[in-house]
Amino acid sequence: MNWQAITFDWNQVRAFLATAEEGSFSGAARVLGLTQPTLGRQVAALEEDLGVMLFQRIGRNLELTPSGLELLDHVRVMGDAAHRVSLAASGHSQAIDGVVRVTATNIYAVYFLPPVIERLHEIAPNLEIDIVASNELRDLRRREADIAIRHVRPQEPELVGRLVNESDGSLYASKRYLSKYGRPRSPADLEGHYFIGSNNQQEMVNYLGRLGITPARENFRFGSDCALVMWEMARQGFGMCLMAAAVATRTPGMEPVFPDMAPMKFPTWLVAHRELYTSRRIRLVYDTLAEFLSNQSETS
Predict the structure, then answer these.
(1) Any idea what DSSP says for residue 211?
(2) 117: left (phi over 0), alpha (psi -120 to 50) or beta
(3) What is the mean pLDDT of residues 235-254?
(4) Nearest 5°: phi and psi at 134?
(5) DSSP code of residue 240
(6) Cβ-Cβ contacts under 8 Å for 270 (sequence gap 6 or more)
């Protein structure tokens, strides 16, 4: 390794990473236990050492520059590695115990979380994982859960969030359904077709609108507040259903209704209370989930 080529200070890198994830110098200073001027100097020193600008002011907002975005992926890997080193050095990586409650939609709970739980059990066998499978947003501030997997960015100042993935989603139907009702040629050709709806029909209409699809009220004849039930209805040929591509490709007999249409993007946010920074067991689960979910687009 060329040690002389490494000219930056880890504290500066940590300041940059915290600022990028918190979205502001004040937020980063708070979670790192520094004053804002000290944190600002560390970020400025890193910019000087690297010879690039990492952040820029857009009105009142602090945004990453293209150089900052390019650096962020590498720095996150460093941050995860540093955390694992800290665990190993303390000699407690196998001694973490207690309950960590994770909330996610029932689709995520069934299709994505089991291998993460298996991995966590290998790392910390005394850890207890409680999965709260629900499409409702649980209140992390009231400790209804410790960690949440959401499709919306957290707005509460007590919470921290990381965008870990943006997965593809499309409209799918079973071969049985398409054989019975025919495949529509375009989104304008949906008369006589059926959609599987949720308990929030307007939200479904909004999602479909992002694909250029505007169904009428009479297109919704079946529905459920449970995404797993919705998906099973679609699998059995009741109608068409929105679903993440990673789930659809694991389900035999399901096909994209409009295979040539560009997919929509579903952002995936990993959210936790700020206790994340003081609880070893919550941080371990959070980091393991972040690593796994970030790789979903590569493994699905």
Answers:
(1) T
(2) alpha
(3) 92
(4) -160, 145
(5) B
(6) 147, 148, 149, 161, 162, 164, 286, 289, 290, 293
Q: What pTM was estimated for this model as a whole?
A: 0.62
Structure tokens at 34: 């520094």
User: Rounded to the nearest 5°, which phi and psi values hold at 123?
Assistant: -75, -45
> CATH code for 3-90?
1.10.10.10
Strands 254-256, 241-244: parallel, antiparallel or unpaired by DSSP?
A: unpaired
Say if CB 26 and CB 36 are below 8 A apart.
Answer: yes
Residue 264 has pLDDT above 80, yes or no: yes
In whole angstroms, give the CA distance from residue 229 to residue 225. Answer: 8
pLDDT at 74 over 60: yes
- CATH number of this structure's domain 98-163+267-299, picked from the four choices 3.40.190.10, 3.30.1300.10, 1.10.287.130, 1.10.287.3610: 3.40.190.10
Residue of 161, 200, 194 whose CA lies nearest to 176: 194
